[in-house]
Amino acid sequence: MRPRSSEQSISANKNYFDSRGITQKHDEQHLHNEMAKRIGKALLNIYSFDDEHTTMLDFACGTGLNSRFLAPYVKSIIGVDISQEMVDRYNKRVENQGISQEEMRAICVPEELLDTSIDQESDNRLKKLLGDVEFDVAICCMSYHHFPSISSATRLLSSLLRPGGYLYVADVESISKADHTGQSITDLEPIFPDGACDAGVVMHQYGFSEVQIKDSFVNAGLAGLDAETGQISRFTYDVATRAFKNGKAVNIFIAGGMKPPL
Ligand SMILES: C[S@@+](CC[C@H](N)C(=O)[O-])C[C@H]1O[C@@H](n2cnc3c(N)ncnc32)[C@H](O)[C@@H]1O
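Above: inputs. Below: predicted complex with S-adenosylmethionine.
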C-alpha cells in the first residue's frame, strides 16, 4: 500500500534503510561505490573544495560513500540521515580509518524534523543538532527521489548554508517516452521499480526534470531571476554520468545553487 502522508513515507524510508541487509548492500555494492565516485569527481570539477576551510553537509548520507570520496578535499563533514543503521555504519567506517569526529561524523535525525511541514522551530532544532554550523557546501546524492517534498527538502538545506554557500543535488533525470520532448508526467517512463513506489520508499518514480529541480531551488532562494539578463542566475545543471536503472539508461544530473551572500 502506498503511504498517504509525508510522515508515512518518511517512516517507510526509515524502516527500509534501517534493515541491516540494505545497509550492507549499499555500502559494499560496486554499483553504489562507482556512482559515488563519479558524482564525487563531477563535484570536484564544479566546486572549489578547500581542505583547510570547506565545511560540508552530506544530507541523506547513507553509509558515507560520497563523504568518503570527498573527505580528502574538505576540512570537515557532517553527515545527516534518517536511518540509524546507515549512520552507525558511516561512523564505524570513520572510526576504523582513525579519523576524528570533529573532522567527520554522521547524525541520525528524528523523523519529525524532516517532515514536509517543517516549521521554523523544527529548523532551529535541526540546526542545534548540527552544532549551529552554517555550511559552505551541502550535497545530497541519489536521495531526492526518496523525499515526499523536494521543495521542503531544498528549503531546509538552504537554511543550513552560510550566505554565499552552495547546494548540490545529484539524482536521476526523467526520461520521456517520446524522445525527451514530452512535458506531461503521463509521457514519462517510470524509472524505479513499482515495488519500491508501492512500499513508499521511492516518492518520485519518474526522476526529475531540470525545470522541477530549478523551481525548488528558486523557491528556496538558491537561484533567482537576474534583473539585467532576465536569466535564472546562481543555478547550474550538468549531466554528471549515465547509469542503468530498472533496465533503462538514464542521466544522473548535478544541480547547483548558491545562497545569496549578505
Ligand atoms: C539511496 S541512499 C543514498 C545514500 C548516499 N547519499 C549515497 O549516494 O550513497 C538514500 C538515503 O536517503 C536516506 N533518506 C531517505 N529519506 C530521507 C529523509 N526524508 N531525510 C533524510 N534522509 C533520508 C536513506 O536513509 C538513505 O540512506
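The two ends are 46 Å apart (CA to CA).
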